[in-house]
Structure formats: structure tokens, C-alpha cells
Amino acid sequence: DAGITQSPRHKVTETGTPVTLRCHQTENHRYMYWYRQDPGHGLRLIHYSYGVKDTDKGEVSDGYSVSRSKTEDFLLTLESATSSQTSVYFCAISERGVMTYEQYFGPGTRLTVT
Amino acid sequence: SQKIEQNSEALNIQEGKTATLTCNYTNYSPAYLQWYRQDPGRGPVFLLLIRENEKEKRKERLKVTFDTTLKQSLFHITASQPADSATYLCALLKTSYDKVIFGPGTSLSVIP
């Protein structure tokens, strides 16, 4: 998985509780992304980062916040988890170059909100 | 709004045959189109990228075409093997900030 780890890999939490997912990379790539994957929807971008302390929203950012204080770490926080946030969350990285735009994905975090 | 569609049904083919997966898009003009493979319980893995000025791209048993007039990409796996069984995702690339829009994926099963 291209030097990308996600933690935790599985989590069950209750509605209304805060949750933080962590993505850690050892590739020193500039761009990092958080996606969620749901049946019938495919992968949808939540937030992304184009550098330390530089982040922006994706298409499904409501209810989520992110932070990136170091190149290697990108945190996704659900301030108050809801059942609609039950999903599989993937972190991805890319090093935007002239010739390559591929993303490398982590193993995913399965989150269940009860 | 932008929309990406892939084969709506799962695709089952016999080993040795050529699998053809379809990716159609509307209300969009991508500069790049990518294909990823995803195995159950794993993250997607990048396979191929094709640019808007390229008609076709090959990599080993894989071939991708990109028709910007039809707004369609075809993904072919020749001499398919059971190990090719997976879900295949197409993705369109915006040129700014490297954001990618993914299709819902097509599940491929290669039957021995």
C-alpha cells in the first residue's frame, strides 16, 4: 500500500461521539486525500491537502474536518458522528508531477456509527 | 452536474476471453482518465492513465481507449484470468489541485 497506513482499521462508535481517523505516509508526497466509499456511490472526496496546513473541501465535506500539521500525517475528524457517516474511509496520496497523476491508497478504515 | 457511469451489472466472463468494461461521463471535459483495480477489503490500485489527446494506451494485457467525442472510455483485459476478478473503477481528473472524480465501479468475475 505504497507506505500508507491508516488507523484504526475498524471502529464502532455511538452517534454523537467525536471520532478521529489518522493517515500516515512515508513517501513524502505533497497531496493527501480523504475519501469515503459507499455502495452505489463509489469513492467520494471528503477533504484534501496540498501541503502542511493547506487543506480544502471535497464534494462531501459537511460534518467532517481535517488537519495536517506534518507532511506525513493527515487527520480526519467527525465532530459528532452520525449514522450516515457509517462507511469505509480511504486515505490517498499523490505527488503531482507533469507526467503522473495517480493516487496511492491506504488499506481503509471501516467505521460503524450505531 | 457531472456524472460518471460504468457497466451497471456485474460482468462474468470465461477465462481466456477478453473482458470489456465501459466508462461513460456527462457534463464534463476531463484532461485525463484513469483506471483503478480494487480487491475486496483493499484500497484501489492505479492501473493506467490516458490523456485526452491519446486514443489508446496499452500495458501488458490491458488496453484503454478514450473517445472524447463519445465521452467514453473502454477498458479491455485480454486473455483474462481468474486473478483478474476484482472491481474496476474509472476516474476523471480535473487539472487543478489534482482532484479526481471516481465512477461507481464494475465488478468483474473471470470464471475458470
What this model shows, in words?
The complex is a heterodimer of chains A (114) and B (112). By secondary structure, chain A is mostly beta strands. The model of chain A has no long low-confidence stretch (mean pLDDT 92). Chain A has strands at residues 4-7, 10-13, 19-25, 31-38, 42-51, 54-57, 64-70, 73-78, 87-94, 104-105, 109-113. Helix content of chain A is 0%, strand content 57%. Chain A has no helices and eleven strands. In chain A, strands 2, 4, 5, 6, 9, 10 and 11 form a seven-stranded mixed beta sheet that branches. In chain A, strands 1-3-8-7 form a four-stranded antiparallel beta sheet, with no helix packed on it. Chain A starts with a strand and ends with a strand. By secondary structure, chain B is mostly beta strands. In chain B, 0% of the residues lie in helices and 56% in strands. Chain B has no helices and eleven strands. In chain B, the strands form two sheets. In chain B, strands 2, 4, 5, 9, 10 and 11 form a six-stranded mixed beta sheet that branches. Chain B starts with a strand and ends with a strand. The relative contact order of chain B is 0.33. The mean pLDDT of chain B is 91. The chains are: A mainly beta (114), B mainly beta (112). Chains A and B meet through strand 5, strand 9 and strand 10 of A and strand 5 and strand 10 of B.
Helix-residue proportion of chain A: under 10%
Helix content, binned percent of chain B: under 10%
How many beta-strand segments of chain A? 11
Q: What amount of the residues of chain B lies in strands?
A: over 45%
Computed over alpha carbons, the radius of gyration of chain A is 13 Å
User: Uncertain spans of chain B, ≥5 residues at pLDDT below 50?
Assistant: none
Structural class of chain A: mainly beta
Mean pLDDT of chain A: 92
Structural class of chain B: mainly beta
**N-end to C-end Cα span of chain B:** 41 Å
Q: Give the topology string of chain A: H per helix, E per strand.
A: EEEEEEEEEEE
